[in-house]
Design a protein that fits this description.
The complex is a heterodimer of chains A (110) and B (112).
Chain A (H helix, E strand, L loop, with lengths): L3 E4 L2 E5 L4 E7 L7 E6 L6 E6 L5 E4 L2 E6 L4 E6 L8 E9 L2 E4 L3 E6 L1
Parallel strand pairs in A: 2-11
Antiparallel strand pairs in A: 1-3, 3-8, 4-5, 4-9, 6-7, 7-8, 9-10, 9-11
Chain B lengths: L3 E4 L2 E4 L5 E7 L5 E7 L5 E8 L5 E2 L10 E5 L2 E6 L8 E9 L2 E4 L3 E5 L1
Parallel strand pairs in B: 2-11
Antiparallel strand pairs in B: 1-3, 3-8, 4-5, 4-9, 5-6, 7-8, 9-10, 9-11
Classes of the chains: A mainly beta (110), B mainly beta (112).
């Protein structure tokens, strides 16, 4: 039973475009929502994270939008670059354990 | 931040054998975690390893198959026992440091 549902499975975006990845959760006890970026052959690296008392967080070209009432959160990658081509995982923390979404493979075309 | 190293980085093993994966962290941490990432899949938590206590396993994972040691605050091992091809995965060590969970580079295991 997957506690965090992520979509889409993959997406292709042109350089300079916006990539949007969506996640939904059910467990209201989750208290921390990170996004990880993973390149082939590497471990996941923290990209950006948000707490449920904040509706939006922006770091550079990456923005998390959080809707507590809908139990949804999303990652927006602005001005997408070829170097952003990677797999992105959303996650949610409960009791210091992370539950991960299925992942989204993003391909940025030059 | 935390820098995590794992050994080996990759291995090819025969079914029925066992492999021990080492995880070293550059700072003392209370909680360490072991994850499995099957090919093309997401990350699944195997167990939580706290120093001085028995590891806590998630549903579907058992100590006989995945014994874990945590001898001190910077080191842990995960053994994959009696391996089968279904154990072919990336195994990742992870720690929490200052509200951030860091991951090691992973150990890529192929079981023939």
């Amino acid at each position: 039973q997957q506690q965090v549902k992520q979509s889409p499975q993959s997406l292709i975006v042109q350089k300079g475009g916006i990539s949007i990845i969506n996640c939904a959760y059910e467990n209201t006890a989750f208290d921390y929502f990170p996004w990880y970026q993973q390149f082939p052959g590497k471990g996941p690296a923290l990209l950006i994270a948000i707490r449920p008392d904040v509706s939006e967080k922006k770091e550079g070209r990456f923005t998390i939008s959080f809707n507590k009432s809908a139990k949804q959160f999303s990652l927006h990658i602005m001005d997408s670059q070829p170097g952003d081509s990677a797999t992105y995982f959303c996650a949610a923390r409960g009791d210091y354990k992370l539950s991960f979404g299925a992942g989204t493979t993003v391909t940025v075309r030059a | 931040s935390a820098v995590i190293s794992q050994k080996p980085s990759r291995d090819i093993c025969q079914r029925g054998t066992s492999l021990t994966i080492q995880c070293q962290v550059d700072s003392q941490v209370t909680m360490m975690f072991w994850y499995r990432q099957q090919p093309g899949q997401s990350l699944t938590l195997i167990a939580t390893a706290n120093q001085g206590s028995e590891a806590t396993y998630e549903s579907g994972f058992v100590i006989d198959k995945f014994p874990i040691s945590r001898p001190n605050l910077t080191f842990s091992t995960l053994t994959v026992s009696n391996m089968s091809p279904e154990d072919s995965s990336i195994y990742l060590c992870s720690v929490w440091v200052q509200e951030t969970q860091y991951f090691g580079p992973g150990t890529r295991l192929l079981v023939l």
